[in-house]
Amino acid sequence: MYSFIISIIALIVGYIVYGKIVEKIFGIEPSRLTPSKKLSDGVDYVEMGWKKAFLIQFLNIAGTGPIFGAVAGAMWGPAAFLWIVFGCIFAGAVHDFLIGMMSLRKDGASVAELVGENLGNGARKLMVVFSIILLVLVGVVFITSPAAILNDLTGIDKMVLIAIIIVYYLAATVLPIDKIIGRIYPIFGIALLVMAIGIGIGIVIEGYHIPEIAFENYHPAHQSVFPYLFITIACGAISGFHATQSPMMARCLQNEVEGRKVFYGAMISEGVVALVWAAAAMSFFGGTPGLGEALSHGGAAVVVNRISTSVLGKVGGALALLGVVACPITSGDTAFRSARLTIADAIGYKQGPIANRFLIAIPLFVVGIALCFIDFNILWRYFSWSNQTLATIALWAAAKYLNNHGKNYFIALLPAMFMTVVVTDYIVIAPEGFVRFFHGTPVATIEMVGLVCGLILSAVCTLGFFKTLKKEKISEAHA
């Protein structure tokens, strides 16, 4: 119990203290014109108050991520608390803030353009493709999963439900951001926060046993904490998907002073939601073996429903429905909208005329609809890794940006180095990675190989980073 409460307090203190440090290092300019003021178009560049922008950003980056990911991550026990707290404060919130503010300074540019500007055109092209694939996958999964749940609840034909969701997605993708997203997202954002607060208070008052942090692996199958926990809990600690979402709000802020509240603050709030659900999952079922049993009979959605209805009654049931149906939909529509903006930025195609928006959106939805009829479970296994890899690349770009502007780049460099180890280690040892090439090799040996590979690649990237800085200094000296 104490570990859980201290973790909540740590996140709040992290926002107040480290968030302010990061903001100071970046260098806020209150008098600088924001994209919403100088490029106002009534479509994507629309001024919004910081409270509305915060709630939209929170829901954009959250959805079911900090719920389902935290529930799955709770299998490792209270080690999940440590990753959520430290990951959120020093990696995830830094990542979201820097990408959001870099985008704001670059007229709301997408993450691919920001990576290209700082890491080169080759990296830009890679990120354009990488981020669009990721966004379409997110959008498609959040078409089919809510449709399947609604089909089970209502009996309405799944194809009809998919069609309804797609029509909504298309509208949310092409209409001005303040027409649909700006109106309903703040409401859903508040509901998601209320849901988490209610569950958090409920498990404390009802006396559920929340284990304390200990140097122990609670996973029933003893799957290693590193790197699996760090990939399983993405939203709630650090997520590359956020880098595709932050530019949307970068186009809507009224002043740079709002950046810490909207970008850093939304990530800290997501961390709080993740902590609540991790604590609830590891305590409600009497321990991780019970949680594992529950997950094997219906997955995270069933776990969320059982906890919500038991702790909060009928209200909890309604909120659980919101969590497993409405929240995925609010991630899916912004995924397609972000894909449209990413493509438009990449080809320099103005998005003011609605015909131009449809010209990009329709092919995206054609691909998305086609994927709805394909069993892409194997592909989706790569999502978590792809998500964290995108965040890693974004952090490297942010470190380069800070250096280029004479700022302390270590706030981005250190998490970039760490995440490079994580994603490399994972893809080497995971079932969907290169583990097949180690047939017959002891698990401990494979895990050691993965860790060594991660450390080597991180060291190579770091040396390359400093080598680039050295070359730039030499060029400046000659100039």
Write up this protein.
This protein is mainly alpha-helical and 479 residues long. It has one domain. It contains 19 helices and no strands. The protein is globular, with a radius of gyration of 22 Å. It starts with a helix and ends with a helix. The model has no long low-confidence stretch (mean pLDDT 89).
What's the topology here?
Elements: H1 2-26, H2 35-38, H3 50-61, H4 65-73, H5 79-105, H6 111-119, H7 121-154, H8 158-174, H9 181-205, H10 228-232, H11 241-250, H12 259-284, H13 288-296, H14 299-347, H15 354-371, H16 377-380, H17 383-404, H18 410-429, H19 443-478
Helix pairs in contact: 1-5, 1-12, 3-9, 3-11, 3-12, 4-12, 4-14, 5-11, 5-12, 5-17, 5-18, 6-7, 6-17, 7-8, 7-14, 7-15, 7-17, 8-14, 8-15, 9-12, 9-14, 11-14, 13-14, 14-15, 17-18, 18-19
Domain CstA N-terminal: 4-143, 150-282, 294-422
Membrane topology: Multi-pass membrane protein
Protein name: CstA N-terminal domain-containing protein
